[in-house]
Amino acid sequence: MIFKTKPADVFKERHNGPTKQQMQDMLSTIGTDSLDTLIDETIPPAIRLKNPLNIPAGLTERDFLRKFSAIAKQNKVFKSYIGLGYHDTIIPPVIQRNILENPGWYTAYTPYQAEIAQGRLEALINYQTMVMDLTGMEIANASLLDEGTAAAEAMAMLHANRKGTRKNAERFFVSNQMLPQTIDVLMSRATPIGIELVIGDHREANLNDETLFGAILQYPAADGEVFDYTSFIAEAHKNDMFVAVAADILSLTLLTSPGEMGADVAVGTTQRFGVPMGFGGPHAGYFATKEAFKRVIPGRIIGQSIDAQGKKAYRMALQTREQHIRREKATSNICTAQVLLAVISGMYATYHGPRRLKYIGLNTHSMAQMLNEQLKGLGFEQLNENFFDTLNIKAENAEMVNAIRKEAEAAQINFRYFGQNQIGISLHQNMDVEEVKEIVEVFAKVAGKKADVSNLAIAEETYISWPEALIRKSEYLTADVFNAHHSEHQILRYMKQLENKDFSLTHGMIPLGSCTMKLNATAEMMPITFPEIAHMHPFAPADQTKGYKQIFSDLESWLCAATGFDAVSLQPNSGAQGEYAGLMVIRAYHEANGDTHRNVALIPSSAHGTNPASAVMAGMKVVIVKCDEKGNIDVADLKAKAEQYKNELSCLMVTYPSTHGVYEESIIEICQIIHENGGRVYMDGANMNAQVGLTSPANIGADVCHLNLHKTFCIPHGGGGPGVGPIGVVKDLAPYLPGHAVVDMGREKAIHAVSAAPWGSASILPISYAYIAMMGGEGLTEATKVAIMNANYIKARLEKYYPVLYVGKNGRCAHEMILDCRAFKKFGVEVEDIAKRLMDYGYHAPTVSFPVAGTLMVEPTESEAKEELDRFCDAMIAIRKEIEEVENGAADQKNNVLKHAPHTAELALSENWDRPYSREKAVYPYEFSRTNKFWPTVSRIDSAYGDRNLICSCTPLEAYNNPEVAQHATGIE
Ligand SMILES: Cc1ncc(COP(=O)(O)O)c(C=O)c1O
To answer: Domain Glycine cleavage system P-protein N-terminal, which positions (predicted)?
Structure first.
């Protein structure tokens, strides 16, 4: 017999949910005959691409992994002592496997639905507590994008809150011992908001200068010197100035904290707490400050509140500060942050506890002392009087530096080479005495001497030689959680216990509109922990990073193909940061043309909150453009405003397809109007999943756009980050793409860096690389079509029950749709009740009240199979029937199954069940929930209570208030 053969493993068939047969059924439910007809009915012909996407054919998982390993192997993983904010570290294997490599953690979204996110909320509160304790500050947020942006946020916050005699001061003192990349990011952020930086030696700063409103200092300094900033800060305070300190988190296990020195803000990165360097990121930037600033802190803060039963429950606190509510008046544009990395660092501290963390600090310091003695013995001069982990060796001349570099590189070692023939050596956790010996050998060879290293060993006792005032005496990590999970079984069970409280893509669809929660395939995730990807320092010499360079150049060219643009910068590490970067590029372009007065950004009223918030950060004035009753941009209003501001027009920010889920027919005309009036068009690419292969930003007439690689291109959301928000630009904007203070990015007129690392969150770029390589141009295009089909299928099934707001000319939605729930309000049913009730059915709610209050925005993505879409629709239809019971009086308006949702197991099993509906209806509302129940662990959370009674750290264990117990926990035995 003859059998037909076919490839058994085609990746796109794994990525796209519905089978061919299911697609036929779905298309007939939608009322169309084929996928292509549906696409023709949905996307306006004027913006359709004429040619297929120019990206090579897709690879199988096996072929991709082989090919990618070969590329990665072109990176040379040398031992890195470069430091400068990036240090080798050990991620405990139990954390690597159970968090970093575990979809239960990495596929969750930002905890908008707190009742099914208590696990990561608790992990984040641990992280905040860890940061507060180590920095000695009163409140911390749940992460920022990196150390550089955290420093820039500190500057912006202090500027916005200037006081007393410095109320109108516009200058900010920056120590010349800040990390160079931090200074670069500060430069980028200062100018547009009218701040002038004064860069100098803090010992010579004139704090009586009335033009200064604040200062920022590095601790330890970039060259490794440890300064006591207490008197500087006191002097600054006398002058109504604020001081921020960028502090190395590990050093704070031994050094007096910034809080104890009086700092107003402490910033930094928690990278060296268990997160691989990853060629620059992603890592969690931290931000901690005083209580007085709690209502103006940038980014997300997790706080404790209570649920409907009065039980302790966590949720995001003080959200009214944030961009999604305050828009152009927000304290920052942060949306996606670095949750997964914050969780890892917080868990690293939980696993080690205060005692072992202190040992890590002490061992690092001991090795630095040992190396210092050895190098001095060889006749080398070391310039740092007090150091924690970094030596500053002064070579006699440039020839000697070259000789050391040559020897070091031959031994596969990287140092930092800087200043006047100086060599920086930063020691770290992932080394021991053997590595110290290797370093000594390098210097001995150059000095032509024999080093006696045979007896080198970490001494049983170490002497800290820096001044008494800088020796940390205060306790840290005294809360119960940091003193309870030190064996592997304990930490494993604790992590699992938290993971089990969270709804992620491992449980079911997360249909969050505008968030594109598609599959994050395992094969895409595997490369991020390849040593050649994970263990690279971002400032390693170029000849060691050829693998990364190839990954960047392939990825950039594929993203150019997908967007139709000429150049891409991979530097921004979130969508919002991409917006800021893109707007800064437009700003630089106008400035280069002498149009410095062009500072008006037109933004439609339906835009995401990050758009106006980013525009303000880029120094622009926001002018809102109306939308019509169909949700489209009101072209007449746009035209009028573009003409009114034609002399000041900088740009339009437009999301496409619109946040209302439609392909606006007038987009080409809209872009033309902006161009005719001298502006540029910035396209927010959050909805790029509805474009790839079918249309493109360049095709609709945009000049710049960001892509959320953590949406369209499969980087998982990590429970609220990491993200990557590269920007693509047309040719004449390419020279302005972001540069970097340490690494030459090869752009003539580059703007200052927007992220600390040259290629932002480089180590997760392989995820998008893998997705594109395995889907190929054809697969990517098919994914877009299926995403549109899945959305239209849900629309077809649900529109009888929930009116769908806004559709295109032929009645089709794009890749998402808005379900109108406002009519239920008159029976007392709020959209939030539906969102919470969905949890009882085993679903994560769609996006609530964005972009229209009182609605749900549903985005299923291409990755969901028909069965999953049907279950979701069944749940929504069943909920509609429950609403009907309230509507027709069968259920009480206040005391009903929707108002009390979600229902916990504890509640359902309680002795005193007094609800007017059965326990069964509460927790097993439909058949599927009997076999696949997801139990929320708390009931409805009272957010207002938590904001009134703000608690943002772990409640300390009583026992640790006892000084004796505390000493046992943190003291050196
Ligand atoms: C339309 C839109 N723009 C911008 C953003 C911001 O992107 P990010 O969260 O990556 O900063 C989002 C995030 O959901 C969005 O939906």
So the answer is: 13-443, 486-742
Q: Which fold has domain 95-349?
A: Aspartate Aminotransferase; domain 2 (3.40.640)
Q: Which of 339, 571, 610 to mutate to test the pocket of ligand 1 (most atoms within 8 A of CB)?
A: 610
Q: In this predicted structure, what is the pLDDT of residue 629?
A: 85
**Beta strands 390-394 and 381-382: pairing type?**
antiparallel
Q: How many residues does the chain have?
A: 973
In 3-state terms the chain splits into helix, strand, coil percentages (rounded to 5) of 45, 15, 45
Write down the pLDDT at residue 465. Answer: 85
* Best mutation site among 143, 336, 516, 573 for ligand 1 pocket (most ligand atoms within 8 Å of CB): 336
H or E, element range at 288? strand 285-289
Confidence (pTM)? 0.97
Residue 525 corresponds to which amino acid?
A: M
What pLDDT is stored for residue 960 in this prediction?
A: 36
260 and 474 in contact (C-beta within 8 Å)?
Answer: yes
User: Tell me: domain 527-536+547-774, CATH 3.30.160.20, correct?
Assistant: no
Contact status, residue 404 vs residue 380, Cβ threshold 8 Å: no
Task: Report domain extents, the chain.
Answer: 95-349, 527-536+547-774, 781-932
| Angle at 704 (CA atoms; ends 701, 705), nearest 5 degrees | 100
Q: Could you tell me the distance, in angstroms and rounded to a whole number, from the CA of residue 111 to the centre of ligand 1? A: 15
Mark the ranges of the chain whose per-residue pLDDT is less than 50. 957-973
Q: Pick the atom of ligand 1 nearest to 333's CA.
A: 11
Q: CATH number for 781-932: choose from 3.30.160.270, 3.30.830.10, 3.40.1390.20, 3.90.1150.10.
A: 3.90.1150.10
Identical fold between 95-349 and 527-536+547-774: yes
**CA pair distance 565, 162, nearest whole angstrom:** 42
Q: Are 150 and 144 in contact (CB under 8 A)?
A: yes
Residue type for position 174: V
- pLDDT (tens digit, 9 = 90+) per residue, 474-524? 999 999 999 999 999 999 999 999 999 999 999 999 999 999 999 999 999
Cα dihedral across residues 140, 145, 148, 153: positive or negative = negative
Of the candidates 649, 727, 867, the one whose C-alpha atom is nearest the C-alpha of residue 26 is: 867
Compute CA 649 distance to the chain's CA centroid, rounded to the nearest angstrom: 31
DSSP string of 833-846? HHHHHHHHTT----
Distance from first CA to last CA of the chain, Å, rounded? 77
Q: Which value, in Å, is the radius of gyration of the alpha carbons in the chain?
A: 28
Which sign does the torsion angle of CA 396, 217, 330, 721 carry? positive
Pocket of ligand 1 (CB under 6 A): 335-336, 514-515, 574-576, 608, 610, 655, 659, 684, 686, 708, 723, 725
The pLDDT, as a whole number, for residue 383 is 98
Residue 966, pLDDT score? 38
Pairing label, strands 680-685, 649-655: parallel
pLDDT at 329: 80
Of 323, 512, 514, the residue with max ligand 1 atoms within 8 A of its CB, to mutate for a pocket test, comes to 514
Look at residue 265 and give its three-state secondary structure. strand
| Per-residue pLDDT tens digits for 652-687 | 999 999 999 999 999 999 999 999 999 999 999 999
| Rama region for 359: left / alpha / beta (φ>0; ψ in -120 to 50; rest) | alpha
